[in-house]
Amino acid sequence: QSALTQPPSVSGSPGQSVTISCTGSTSDIGSYYRVSWYQQSPGTAPKLMIYEVSSRPSGVPGRFSGSKSGNTASLTISGLQAEDEADYYCSSYTSSSTYVFGTGTKVTVL
Amino acid sequence: DVQLVQSGGGLVQRGGSLRLSCAASGFNVSNNYMNWVRQAPGKGLEWVSVIYTDAVTHYADSVKGRFTSSRDNSKNTLDLQMTSLRPDDTAVYYCARVTRQYYFDLWGQGILVSVSS
Q1: Which H/E stretch holds residue A20?
Q2: Chain Cα centroid distance, residue B73
Q3: How far is CA B52 from CA B41, B47, B71, in A?
Q4: pLDDT-derived band of residue B70, with 50, 70 and 90 as boundaries?
Q5: Which pLDDT tens digit goes with each residue over B77-96?
Q6: Which of A42, A50, B26, B32 has the highest count of CB atoms within 10 angstroms of its CB?
Q7: Which of B37, B102, B105, B112 is most worth mutating to test chain A (most A CB atoms within 10 A of its CB)?
């Protein structure tokens, strides 16, 4: 039950694109299209941004997109905006019928 | 409104016990995959437990044998009984619903559990 691996931080200027990676194993990301991404601002509950690798819930801006290759999933924010500054977590369903979160990535808008 | 409202929590000494509750409105906990997720101060999210619709439960290794998740269908609540608490259990605890597509779509407001040494 090791956490999925994410970079601690990424940064970009407004309008730029940033990509956050999320590396797991064949027991989670590699075996399922059950990867989701969450945005969390200080003192608040996480908010769903992407589900099933690349699907966006209604209300989430189109600049957020997701993908997966092998054991690694990615979240890309295109056209970065100041309001995107937050912590981001990936999550996956696992072969043990449990769930695992990533280590988290802080996105800074320069 | 569809929501989860949490109660319980607080300060407890090492080795003590505490019970968290999560009241659902707008849907039935019995028909959903209900989870607990925690976040230690300044740290990331950690999945804690799930109770599936067939009442099967799973736990993170860090809490297995100490925490028990249960449902009260008559009250439409999800509970987490925590025993043998340790300082590293100190965290904000969230209850959360997982969909049939295995993503977390609804979260409680979070509640702080502090374990003193």
Answers
A1: strand A18-23
A2: 16
A3: 28, 15, 10
A4: very high
A5: 999 999 999 999 999 999 99
A6: A50
A7: B102
Per residue in B13-32, pLDDT tens?
999 999 999 999 999 999 99
- What residues in A contact B99, CB-CB < 8 Å? 51
Q: How large a percentage of chain B has pLDDT more than 70? A: 100
| C-alpha to C-alpha distance for A99 and A55, rounded to whole angstroms | 19
HSE-up (13 A, CA, CB side) for residue A67: 6
Q: Are B51 and B72 in contact (CB under 8 A)?
A: no
Q: How many CB atoms lie within 10 A of CB A48?
A: 20
pLDDT of residue A1: 79
Nearest chain A CA: its distance from B39 CA (Å): 10
- Segments of chain A scoring below 70 in pLDDT: none
Q: How far is B74 from chain A (nearest CA, A)?
A: 26
The total of other beta-carbon atoms located within 10 Å of residue A98's CB is 20
- Contact: B44, A98; criterion CB under 8 Å: no
CB contact under 8 A, B104 and A96: no
Per the CB < 8 A criterion, the answer to whether A86 and A78 are in contact is no
- The Cα A90–Cα A37 span in angstroms is 4
pLDDT of residue B8: 95
